[in-house]
Amino acid sequence: MAALTQSLFGDRFTQDHEGWRELFSTDAFRFQEGLLPDERIALSYARLRRINAAVTDPETFVQDVERLAALHEWAGPADAGMATIASIHYNLFLGSLVDHDNDRDLRSFTDMRRIGTFLCTEAGHGNSASQMETTATYDPATRSFTLHTPCPAARKWMPNTSSAGGSKAAVVAARLITGEGTDRGIFLFLVPLSEATGRPLPGIHIERLPQTATSPVDHCATTFDNVWLPYEALLQSDHGRLTPEGEFTSSIGSPRKRFLTSVGRVTTGKLCMSAYSLGTMRHAVTVAVRHAHNRQTSGATGGNTVPLFAHRSHHAPLLDALATTYAANFLHRTALRTWAQANTTEQREDGERLTAIAKGWITWKAREVMTECRERCGAQGLLLSNGIAFQLAANEGTITAEGDNLVIWTKAAGELLLGHFTPEQPSTTPPADRDLADPGFLQDLLADLARIWHSRARTRLRSGAAGGPLNRWNRTVSSALQLVDAYAHHTAAAALRDAAQNATHPDADYLLHHLHRLFALRRIAAFSGDLLADGRLTADQVQDLPDAIENAIEDLAPHAMTLAAGFAVSEDALLDHPITTQGSGLLPV
Asked: Where does residue 204 rank: exposed (0-12), middle (13-18), buried (19+ CB within 10 A)?
C-alpha cells in the first residue's frame, strides 16, 4: 500500500530510497550460486564500484546521514559483503576525511581508483579502543610521523586490508606522540596501504584472517613496522592541531573526548548498521508472508488444503514480526532525525545515546525476526537464494560492529540511570477505568515499565554494600539494562503510534494503530506481573491480556500481505527467490 510506504519512508523516499531500490533489484545484484568465499568477496567489490557509479558527489553524499542510511537499508538484503565494505569506504573512511580539515585531493577515493578502509580496533582493544597501543611519533626535524605497532595485541584487527578490490588506503587510529614522548591521545592518520596491484607497501604486513560466519569480507590483521608518513597524514581539526614545528593545541582538554571526536563517524556507523538490519528484516518478513500465502498445507479436515497462513500457529508469529519490523523502522527514523538535527553539545549527546540504544534494539530484533521468518519458511528458508539465511548470519556482524551491543547498552544504562532519563509520572486515572484497546493506556503502561526498572536500578545502586564502584555497578547492571530495553520499547511504540496518528490515509491509520496495539500488548503481557504488583494493571486486565492479543491478531491477519507490501520490496528482487513465486528452487543440472 502506497500510504504505508509513505508513512515508513516519508517525503524522502523518491530522493533517497527509490534509486537504491531499483539498482539492487537489477540482474547485476542477483544472488549467485556456488561461489567460493574469495569469489564472493571479489563480486562484492565489483558491485561496490557499481554503487559508486550511482553516487553523483561522494563527498556531499557522506555528509548526509539520511542518504547514507538509505543506501544501507537496501544494500543489506542485496549483498551483505558489499554493504559492509560500502559502509567502511563511505562512512568510516571518506566520511572521516571530510569531517576533518578537508584540503586534500580525494578524487582517487571518490572515483575508486583506491578503496578506503578504517583501522581502529586492535586485537587486544575492541570496545576499550581508547586504550589502543599503536603509535604515530612526530619528528619536527623531518616533518614526518613514524607509525608503529609495538606488540601483537596492537595489530589492527579485522578491517578489509587485503589485495581484494585493488589498491587501498586506510584511516588509521593511533596515539599521537610529540616532543619528548608526550602522548596527546588518539588521532586519525591517512595511510596508503598498497600499490595498484594490491601489494602491501613497505613496512605494512597484512595477514588474512580465517573465514567468518557473517558477511563475506576480506578480514585481516594489519601491522605497521615503523612506517613513514608525511606531516599531512594527520587528520586535524579544532579538537587537535599540530604545527609543522611540533606545537600541539586543542579545544578539548580530555584525551578521551579528543578520541571520541576523532572517531565521531562511529555514531553515524551505528545508524548505518541499524539501517542495514532494517532492510534485511523487511525483506525476510516479505518473503515469509508471501510464502505463507502461496504454500498449501492440510486444513482442519481430511483432503482439505489451505494456505499456511490460514493457521493461527503460523500467522501469529509473522504478524508479531510485522509489528516489530514496523516499530523498528519508526524507531530508526526517530534516532536518525534526532542525530541529523542535533546542533548543541547536549543535543548531540542525546542523539548519540538514542542512536546507541536504537542500534542495539534494532539489530537484536532483526535477529529475532529473521530467525522466526526462516523457521516459518521451513527447509526453503535455508536456501541462501531465498534471502533470509545468509542475511541472518550476516546480521551477527551488525550486532558487533560500531560498538558491541551489550557494551553500548551498558554505557547507555549508566547514563539513563545517572541523570539522563526522567521517568514519566504514572497516570492518575485508576487502571480499572481504562481499556486495553486504548493506545494511550498502552503507552502509559510501557512508560510505567521504564519507571519501574529505573526505580529498581537506582535502589540497587544506592543500597549496595561497600566493595568498590565495580561491585556496586555489578549489583545494578541487570536492572539498568532492563531499563534500556524498556526505554527502547516505549520509544519504538511511541514512534509507531505517532506514525499512525500522522498517516494521511485512513487505511494506513487503521493498520498502524492495530500494529501498535499488538506490539504494545506483547510487551505488556511479558511484564504483566510487574505492572500488577505496581498497581498499574488490575487482576482482571492481566487475565484479559491473552484475549486482547488474540483479538489484535484477528484484526490484522487479513491485512498481512498489505502490510508486507508497505515495505516496498521490489517485485524484480523477489523474482530471484523461488519461495515467493511458488518456484521449485531447483538449479539446472
From this structure: buried
How far apart CA 333 and CA 565 sit, in angstroms, is: 19
- pLDDT for 579 equals 73
Residue 178 burial (C-beta neighbours within 10 Å; 0-12, 13-18, 19+): middle
pLDDT band at 582 (very low <50, low <70, confident <90, very high): low
| pLDDT tens digits, one per residue of 337-353 | 999 999 999 999 999 99
Q: Tell me how far apart the alpha carbons of residues 574 and 576 are, in angstroms, rounded to a whole number.
A: 5
**Sign of CA pseudo-dihedral 13, 339, 334, 280:** positive
Cα 148 to Cα 222: distance, rounded to the nearest angstrom? 11
- Each residue's pLDDT tens digit, 81-124: 999 999 999 999 999 999 999 899 999 999 999 999 999 999 99
> Are the C-beta atoms of residues 98 and 59 closer than 8 Å to each other?
yes
pLDDT digits (tens, 9 = 90+) for 368-423: 999 999 999 999 999 999 999 999 999 999 999 999 999 999 999 999 999 999 99
User: Is the pLDDT reported for residue 589 higher than 50?
Assistant: no
**Burial (CB count within 10 angstroms: exposed 0-12, middle 13-18, buried 19+), residue 235:** buried
Over range 57-64, report the average pLDDT.
97
Q: How far apart are CA 122 and CA 66, in angstroms?
A: 30
The grid cell for 550 is: 488474540
d(CA 298, CA 151): 63
User: Do 293 and 309 touch, CB atoms closer than 8 A?
Assistant: yes
* Nearest one of 392, 414, 417, 396 to 405, comparing CA atoms: 396
- What is the grid cell recorded at 205? 604486513
Which residues have a Cβ under 8 Å from the Cβ of 425 and sit 6 or more positions away?
A: none
Smallest Cα–Cα separation from 84: which of 366, 354, 277? 277
How high is the mean pLDDT of the chain? Answer: 95
The C-alpha cell 509513505 sits at 6
Helix-helix angle 312-340:265-294, to 10 degrees = 160
C-beta contacts of 424-433 below 8 A and 24+ residues apart:
424/448, 424/450, 424/451, 426/451, 426/536, 431/535, 431/536, 431/537, 431/538, 431/541, 432/538, 432/540
Using alpha carbons only, give the angle 511, 514, 518 rounded to the nearest 5 degrees: 135
Strands 168-178 vs 135-139: parallel, antiparallel or unpaired: parallel
For the four alpha carbons of 438, 537, 519 and 291, in that order, the dihedral sign comes to: negative
Contacts of 480 (CB under 8 A, 6+ apart): 410, 413, 414, 416, 417, 453, 457
Q: Which residues neighbour 142 within 8 Å (Cβ) at sequence distance 6 or greater?
A: none
Distance CA 406, CA 321 (A): 23
